[in-house]
Amino acid sequence: MAWVRDQVGAPYVAGGLSLLAGDLAKLGQLVLNRGLWAGQRILSEDWIELSLAQGQPYYPLYGLLWWRIPAYEHVTITAATFAALQAAGVAGVSLGALEPLVEQRFASAHAYRQALARALGPEWQGVLADASRRGVEVTTWDRGEIVGYQANGYLGQYLVILPQDDLVAVRLVRRSPTYDPATDGFEDFTPSVQALRGEKMSRTDHPNQPETQRTSACVTAEGDEHVACNNGG
């Protein structure tokens, strides 16, 4: 574990920590344990709770430097929204590409973004920004209760914590000349981790399963590292 430092030796605390997936998983475990490590209080439980709570009144998925994970997140471009886009004067070419998506219900934000990219091409984010400048939100969101928390960042690094399932998962990736954000960003990492919940519930239906098959898993590959830690068995 090491910090990237500036010319005077100060660490780049915003994003300059180099560490292994197992070390990052330990930080997730500390949060999962509400500040306890091996029975010793390292961080205040009140501080943990405050940092994981909604940090402002505008967007429920923002904590204090944490993303809050809902149980589900369904996305729809409604007919009313499409009409609002037309009334706001959004470019007709963009509207024509969006029209086939109207009233489709996407099962995740990732699936929605993929559909937009297919329909609008590489400029899809610009279309959303244009609609926002005109005061129109393109989609309607239906979200479940908050079931977890995540930190994510550059290149597709993830730390995912699901307290109800006693689960911590990590994904790290190294910089590479061949890195492709479309394939290496792993945008669906968090939904993939959430899918482990069903696997864990299945295991509880088979309590005689050997312990070696019920503990955490670590899979590594060149340039990529994943860790999933399930402490409940």
Description:
By secondary structure, the chain is of the alpha+beta class. The chain folds into two domains: 18-68 and 149-230, no CATH class; 73-143, no CATH class. It is 34% helix and 24% strand. It is built from eight helices and 13 strands. A six-stranded antiparallel β-sheet has the order 5-9-10-11-13-12, with helices on both faces.
Number of H- or I-type helical stretches: 8
Amount of beta strand: 15-25%
Please state the average pLDDT score: 82
- The tally of beta strands, per DSSP, is 13
Biggest sheet layout = 6 strands, antiparallel
Give the helix/strand class.
Answer: alpha+beta
In what order do the strands lie side by side in the largest sheet?
A: 5-9-10-11-13-12
Q: Kindly state the percentage of residues in helix.
A: 25-40%
The structural domain count equals 2
| Low-confidence blocks of residues | 201-224, 228-233
- Gap from first CA to last CA: 28 Å
Q: How much is the radius of gyration in Å?
A: 21 Å
What shape does the CA trace take? globular
Helices and strands, in order, run as: EEHEEHEEHHEHHEEEEHHEE
